[in-house]
Amino acid sequence: MITKEQVLAALSHVEDPDLKKDLVTLNMIKDVKIEDKTIGFTLELTTPACPMKEMLKNACTNAVRHFVLADAEININITSRVTKPLDISQLKDIKNIILVSSGKGGVGKSTVASNLAVTLAKDGAKVGLIDADIYGPSVPIMFGLIGAKPSARETEDGKSLILPIEKYGIKLLSLGFFADPDQPVPWRGPMASNAIKQLFNDADWGELDYLIVDLPPGTGDIHITISQSFPIAGAVIVTTPQQVALADTRKGLAMFRMPGINIPVLGVIENMSYFTPAELPENKYYIFGKNGGKELAEKYDVPFLGEIPLVQGITASGDSGEPISMENDSPIAASFTEIAGKIAQQISINNVQTANC
Ligand SMILES: Nc1ncnc2c1ncn2[C@@H]1O[C@H](COP(=O)(O)OP(=O)(O)OP(=O)(O)O)[C@@H](O)[C@H]1O
């Protein structure tokens, strides 16, 4: 008769290539059940966006067939429990805060932040999105929520909590929900910093695996406030291939590495990398130059997370209140799936490394 110990021993030969330990030591194998030749168990990943899901599943199947029974029937149930960094202070139900930044305005930072949120939520993660762009909050437009006003609820101890607005399974708060759309520069200095802090501290976020923050472009007070007030899992930097954008991006990268800020840079995303006409889907035209983002990532020794093509549909879908990655079969959704997977993977690696320190 096959025993649970035999199955676990077999699975202890399977190593998670990112976390560099075997699945049993990592406590990722649960609920082993054996009935004759049928072996079932749960594989608990560190993120539902794990790009190595299929690879790990195949490795588990091979290990059990090799070490236990060659003709075993194997049923693997894949779940996930997102890990978090050790220091989570007051925001104890929010596991990982991800900053989306850019050195320059208009490079597609809000488009990337919104589509990453949609992609992670589609994978099954609990996701929140804060639009902290004091200059031009775009989440209300991108999610079809212009004019929306979040309501509030009282806690038992009399505190008032803002209720994020939920759309496409994502909990959203934007500075734009609290400002008059015709007011030219609504948020300045300390008022902006306080408003941002409230979006984190005084909102009823519930449990979140990932809270994505769409930062204002450049480097400024808001970046410092957020970086110093909350535990940040990491920052991603969005750039276009042009040199000007790249020069500003370098400043952004350097800021996250300053002492006193010191936030892990999860990587660089290159947006508007190339244009592919719908009628010639195999052709890629690198209008703004090629490989700029990749070279920048190499130079600063941070991961390159991927390229997003220039596509006509993005602006239309952004304006119509439905981020483009809601369309499952679009090539751009595939770019976002790959990038979101790499970000979630990078965070899991960092979290396991800090837990081991
Ligand atoms: N890959 C893309 N293909 C085509 N259009 C894009 C792409 N990415 C973004 N855009 C468009 O470029 C414009 C700027 O994008 P977005 O608002 O996301 O940039 P941003 O960096 O957040 O700007 P801001 O300076 O306002 O913070 C929008 O109209 C958006 O729809």
Write up this protein.
Residues 4-67 form the MIP18 family-like domain. This is Iron-sulfur cluster carrier protein. Binds and transfers iron-sulfur (Fe-S) clusters to target apoproteins. Can hydrolyze ATP. This protein has 357 residues and is an alpha/beta fold. It folds into two domains: 4-80, 2-Layer Sandwich (GMP Synthetase, Chain A, domain 3), CATH 3.30.300.130; 94-356, 3-Layer(aba) Sandwich (Rossmann fold), CATH 3.40.50. It is 33% helix and 24% strand. The chain contains ten helices and 15 strands. The chain has helices at 4-11, 53-67, 109-122, 139-142, 189-201, 221-229, 243-256, 292-299, 312-319, 331-356; strands at residues 15-16, 21-22, 29-35, 38-45, 73-80, 94-102, 127-131, 152-154, 160-162, 165-167, 170-174, 208-214, 234-239, 265-275, 304-310. The strands form four sheets. An eight-stranded mixed β-sheet has the order 10-11-7-12-6-13-14-15, with helices on both faces. A three-stranded mixed β-sheet has the order 3-4-5, covered by helices on one side. A hairpin with a 2-residue loop joins strand 3 and strand 4. Helix 1 (4-11) packs across helix 2, helix 3 crosses helix 10 (331-356) and helix 5 runs parallel beside helix 6. The longest helix has 26 residues, at 331-356. The radius of gyration is 22 Å and the shape is globular. The relative contact order is 0.15. Residues 102, 105-111, 133, 136, 138, 217, 271-272, 308, 310-311, 314-315, 318 line the site of adenosine-5'-triphosphate (ATP).
